[in-house]
Amino acid sequence: MRARDLLAVSPVVGLDSPVIDAARLLAEQDLPGLIVVAADGAPVAILPGTQVLRLAVPGYCQDDPALARVVDEAHADTLFDDLHGRTVREALPRQGRELPVTDPDATALELAALMARTRSPLVAIVEHGRLVGAVTLQALLDRMLGS
């Protein structure tokens, strides 16, 4: 099994796209993450849904989970309001990471190793310098487990 057999069209966002729009896209399409592209359409990062959460959840709640319990429901329900006006660029990890990108001929094991090494729920598939889609963790596991 090769990446081309698991390939799916994947929505993309730009670095300066509103992060709230990225969050909506993740939720509406039940995606594990999004491919972030440069102006020329080349992948530059993967934005996992967890990174959007990191931007939305106050740092003090991430540092001390006990503090998250004291925030009342009315305020907890407004966490995503703080994402308005912020960009995808702000949601990306500060330190550079290996970009999970491969070609359509990558094997299932190569995809799995790349996902594991980069801790990414999806891999961008590029052919002849052009993004052709992505392979998600779910698609890979479904196929490998015979689901």
TrEMBL record:
Entries under Gene3D superfamilies matching the protein: CBS-domain
Coiled-coil stretches: none
Signal peptide interval: none
Listed SUPFAM superfamilies: CBS-domain pair
InterPro entries recorded: CBS_dom, CBS_dom_sf
Pfam families: CBS
Domain CBS: 97-145
Protein name: CBS domain-containing protein
Originating species: Acrocarpospora phusangensis
